[in-house]
């Protein structure tokens, strides 16, 4: 049920977290597994999941047992398709029009209960947005978004289908859309591969179509820092530098009751009553605005990936510069694994050195890291 991918530094296991949610015993089990069976780190992915890497040969059975015991592998058949992103602070802070946490649980259960849906491609993504415009802008395949009248809009391939559902019926509609995709797809892995996904699929689902809403195209990322909750408590939202939690952080974060992993490689610790600076230091999360880590992501690079031309993570860390700005993603090869869904500066290792790109346009190319860093800064400012 748990697939282990062979990587240059050992086995790699990706653990799906619907809604990014990790309860304390689950986080402890992952941290222990990383220490006992892997390389001691946990990685946050661009889909709000967790990866354990550097797994020794034969570790999958032990890892599977540990994860199943804490509820992280609820289905033997559907693990690959439990891709559900949700607004991180839904129901807790002052934003959002409804609490989508019950919908996350309902969607996960509904997915796992239908044998046919195990056939969804592993990249198929559901997004449940509470109206703040964070995850719906990731251009998932099937999404739900408040329509403003108490109902939810069915969003297909990033566009409003015009179909509406009461919150009690919305998950059923989303699951019907996924089933319809499975019936009519040929070679497509994702509904987003169809430019007219909404018009193609909505007629198969029946029902009246409202004039389409405009769906946010740029995610409103979860802000960093101490964030007030409705109940008077506080959530802390912090960047995890290059998406990797170090062993000392894994130890310190065990004290958190819950951790929410976001698709922006940030971690949110909710429901706190006292957040001292020393606690934040121990957790090692970056909460300052415009830090050099903000918007900075990288693929695994060397030594984790055999395709990588260089230790791209180390280069990204060395070349980072403060000031914030649009996202920057470093890649060890043309595949550009884990790049952000929205507009960003790409830095790609090629035989001719690092290429700095904006979309398909190459803005600079150099073997020199200082020159690459300068080109990144210039490109960021031009966006
Ligand atoms: S982008 Fe290339 S080098 Fe980086 S992880 Fe993907 S395949 Fe490996």
Description:
It is a single chain. The chain is of the alpha+beta class. The chain has 3 domains: 4-79 and 222-283, Sulfite Reductase Hemoprotein, domain 2 (Alpha-Beta Complex); 90-205, Sulfite Reductase Hemoprotein, domain 1, CATH 3.30.413; 296-382. Helices cover 26% and strands 24% of the residues. It has helices at residues 24-37, 60-69, 101-113, 167-184, 197-205, 247-252, 277-283, 312-319, 369-381, and strands at 4-7, 10-15, 21-23, 42-44, 50-55, 84-86, 126-128, 142-146, 152-156, 159-165, 225-228, 234-239, 244-245, 258-261, 266-272, 296-298, 328-331, 345-350, 353-358, 361-366. A hairpin with a 5-residue loop joins strand 4 and strand 5. Helix 3 (101-113) runs parallel beside helix 4 (167-184) and helix 4 (167-184) crosses helix 5 (197-205). It is globular, with a radius of gyration of 21 Å. Iron/sulfur cluster binds at residues 299-301, 305, 307-308, 331-333, 335-337.
């Amino acid at each position: 049920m748990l697939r282990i991918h062979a990587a240059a530094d050992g086995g790699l296991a990706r653990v799906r977290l619907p809604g990014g949610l990790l309860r304390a015993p689950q986080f402890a089990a992952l941290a222990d597994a990383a220490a006992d069976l892997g390389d001691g780190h946990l990685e946050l992915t661009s889909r709000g999941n967790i990866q354990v890497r550097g797994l020794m040969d034969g570790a999958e059975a032990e890892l599977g047992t540990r994860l199943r015991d804490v509820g992280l592998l609820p289905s033997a058949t559907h693990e690959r398709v439990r891709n559900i992103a949700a607004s991180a602070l839904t129901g807790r802070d002052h934003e959002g029009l409804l609490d989508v946490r019950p919908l996350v649980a309902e969607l996960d259960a509904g997915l796992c209960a239908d044998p046919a849906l195990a056939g969804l491609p592993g990249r198929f993504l559901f997004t449940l947005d509470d109206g703040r415009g964070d995850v719906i802008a990731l251009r998932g395949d099937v999404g739900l978004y408040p329509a403003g009248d108490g109902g939810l809009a069915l969003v297909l391939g990033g566009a409003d289908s015009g179909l509406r559902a009461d919150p009690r019926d919305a998950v059923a509609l989303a699951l019907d859309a996924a089933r319809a995709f499975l019936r009519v797809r040929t070679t497509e892995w994702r509904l987003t591969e169809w430019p007219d996904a909404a018009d193609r699929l909505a007629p198969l689902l029946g029902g009246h179509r409202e004039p389409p809403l405009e769906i946010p195209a740029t995610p409103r990322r979860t802000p960093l820092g101490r964030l007030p909750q409705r109940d008077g408590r506080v959530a802390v939202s912090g960047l995890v530098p290059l998406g990797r939690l170090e062993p000392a952080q894994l130890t310190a974060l065990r004290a958190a009751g819950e951790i929410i992993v976001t698709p922006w490689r940030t971690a949110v610790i909710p429901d706190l009553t006292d957040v001292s600076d020393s606690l934040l230091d121990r957790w090692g999360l970056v909460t300052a605005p415009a830090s050099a880590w903000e918007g900075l992501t990288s693929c695994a690079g060397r030594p984790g990936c055999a395709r990588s031309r260089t230790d791209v993570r180390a280069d990204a860390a060395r070349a980072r510069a403060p000031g914030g700005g649009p996202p920057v993603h470093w890649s060890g090869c043309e595949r550009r694994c884990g790049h952000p869904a929205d507009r960003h500066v790409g830095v790609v290792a090629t035989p001719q050195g690092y290429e700095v790109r904006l979309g398909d346009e190459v803005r600079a190319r150099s073997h020199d890291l200082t020159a690459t860093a300068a080109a990144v800064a210039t490109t960021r400012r031009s966006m």
